[in-house]
Design a protein that fits this description.
Chain lengths: 135, 68
């Protein structure tokens, strides 16, 4: 299984955001290189919803520019499933348009033990990546 | 003429439309947002809007989904 690595700092930032925004879904973008994510960029959930999320394109473009300033690439998006498993839902599969992007999902079914998993989604087909959390 | 697409300088011919740039990259137009010089472009304008020298075009796939 391909390995997607992410820094502990980025993971902690994602966990803090997703817990703070629960029971609503939280979302954001990850910068890094290849399959190595180093910086989490939290964004607003434009849907303000417990069951869906979307990132406003203008905010996403702003994040992309910040990533360039930080010398990282946009390599992954993330969102939370506050009450369900960290697996792409039919909605996630249907709306995933970029087959090269990694889609990270955080489940908060057990808030004290969040679960973070990563996937490629291509034409509705899901391939899971092994997640490695680095110091 | 020179433009920037997703931060990278490129040479394109005069009259190149947003749609043709996306098509050349095999990007489904309904799945992406486009910004030119910091302004969002309405999807209906993709087929007719042409880039000018020095324009900075950005595009990215919509980020959306959820458990529903």
């Amino acid at each position: 299984m391909p390995v997607f690595s992410i820094t502990r700092e980025a993971v902690e930032r994602i966990y803090a955001q997703t817990r703070a925004e629960a029971p609503r879904e939280a979302c954001g973008m990850l910068g890094g290189s290849g399959l190595h994510a180093t910086i989490a960029y939290p964004t607003k959930n434009a849907d303000t919803s417990n069951i869906t999320y979307s990132i406003d394109p203008q905010e996403a473009f702003s994040v992309i520019k910040q990533m360039r300033a930080d010398a990282v690439d946009f390599i992954a998006g993330y969102h939370s499933h506050p009450e369900t498993e960290a697996f792409p839902s039919p909605t996630d599969k249907g709306k995933a348009g970029d087959s090269e992007l990694v889609y990270v999902i955080v489940s908060l079914r057990r808030p004290d033990q969040p679960e973070l998993r990563a996937y490629w989604i291509d034409g509705g087909e899901v391939e899971e990546l092994d997640v490695q959390i680095n110091p | 003429m020179e433009v920037k697409i997703n931060g990278v300088k490129e040479e394109i011919v005069s009259g190149t439309t947003v749609s043709s740039i996306l098509e050349n990259r095999e990007v489904r137009q309904e799945m992406v947002a486009v910004e030119i010089n910091g302004e969002l472009v309405q999807k209906g304008k993709y087929p007719t809007l042409t880039l000018k020298a020095g324009d900075e075009m950005e595009f990215l796939h919509y980020m959306a989904g959820g458990r529903s």
